[in-house]
């Protein structure tokens, strides 16, 4: 038992252990996702998060220690995002033909995401800091956290809300689009990328390459649109005493 305890102390202090934990958790969640017939309720990201959190809680490991290993996966987010240009390039002829529709859709989607989040939080009595934290929830995490901090929100809370939004969109987005009778892959991809950023884009890529390409495009452009629109809207909210 002493030998086992010593081994655990050594492993828990090693960055490679937490890197391995992250990869194994995602692989296990992906296996379950496939075995479950690709059910949206078995989303691999959600499954991996639950497994990692359970291990960290049971072992009493703080986030800082875990991130020493997970930072290697975090680094790969950049190359993975850039790699979204590949399916986008393959669908570029469709993007050019739909430029006007894409622009209008993105502006409407960005405004809807901001206004509904602020309205619901405001009706529930949320403070100004909470409103600022919720408003950019549909944007990819680094951009959303920067916007929230600029508006006086809590970046850490925004990061959690972004992840929850992405997982929720990946789980229920396709079902909602089916219920609404939206079958066009371009429209479905734009909706997923605008509403649920990277996690929604990953889900769209699993289903259809065209949807994945348009989702990646929407994810990037929505980040730009929100970064430009939200500070202007926030100034209006402050002027009329809404925050």
From TrEMBL:
The chain crosses the membrane at residues 16-33, 45-66, 72-89, 101-120, 159-182, 213-237. GO terms for cellular component: membrane. The keyword Kinase does not apply. It comes from the Bacteria. InterPro entries: CidB/LrgB. The keyword Transmembrane helix applies. It is found in: Membrane. It is a multi-pass membrane protein. Keywords: Membrane, Transmembrane, Transmembrane helix. This is LrgB family protein. It comes from Ruegeria sp. PrR005.
